[in-house]
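can u pls check wat happens w/ NAP
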Amino acid sequence: MKTRIGFLGGGRIARALAGGLIQGGKDSWVLAASTRTRESGEAFRKAVPEARLYPEERNRELVEQSDIVFLCVKPPEAPGVLRQVGAVTGGKWIVSVAAGLSLAKIASLVASSARIVRAMPNLPVRIGSGVIPYCLGPGWEDRNREEIRNLLGRFGEAIEIEEPLFPLATVLAGCGPAYYCAFLACMLRFAEESGLPAQEACGMLLATASGAIELLKQTDLDPAEVVAESRTPGGITHAALSVLEQEGWHEALRRALAAAWHRAKSLET
Ligand SMILES: NC(=O)c1ccc[n+]([C@@H]2O[C@H](COP(=O)([O-])OP(=O)(O)OC[C@H]3O[C@@H](n4cnc5c(N)ncnc54)[C@H](OP(=O)(O)O)[C@@H]3O)[C@@H](O)[C@H]2O)c1
């Protein structure tokens, strides 16, 4: 029997999650999403052509017709949406990916028999290569714990964590792909401006990035050791890293992460 999955909010992360489910086996799911505007609904349908779409006024109906509901609206909208659907959440699994929304807050807005998950996926969930830290609300039986772990495992690495670690997990895993891609985007631009055709530049840089990650995964080298292995004193890597160090990039990155952590903690409700 197919599992009915409903997305309250069909934006960026809902499309990524839906993509992850589909690539792991299209026939297992019936997917539906609700959105505020028609444009957002059409973007979801483009990503998931077979999906059923609901306008926000019919959020309740979406929940009634789903076994598992992913709450994928932005944090300020999340309490209002949960209030709107709360009465029909009995017995459902509610997986909230809204930043900052605590298990306690969710529990106060849904039926007591609903089973709640707080999760923080990142964009590679779209291809089953994401990271999805999560924690469970009260009332989960062992059998269902196993089932929810398997469901989240379809998106990549599902890692159960303590709820107080959520802001940090958000900074590192939720936002992480953007940091690496921002770095790559800058290198790509430099490569193209310096004369390497875009296609070659892209191939070379992606292979270099995945090679570096594989090296870390397959050996006992840590990142600092890989840097040291590449950095011959007076050599070319040394020239690049020396400029970054003179510019204070370690401190800049630490400040950036601290700012993100501060922002993530400020959203906790
Ligand atoms: N993007 C990420 O990488 C990421 C990662 C982890 C967690 N998250 C979390 O995921 C949530 C959504 O982020 P996002 O980046 O996907 O935002 P987004 O692209 O703006 O998507 C939000 C969606 O919610 C819809 N929506 C707004 N109000 C609604 C309502 N009352 N009923 C039903 N749908 C409604 C929006 O429709 P309209 O566009 O028509 O307004 C839109 O489709 C946030 O809480 C964020 O913390 C995001």
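DSSP finds twelve helices and eight strands in the chain.
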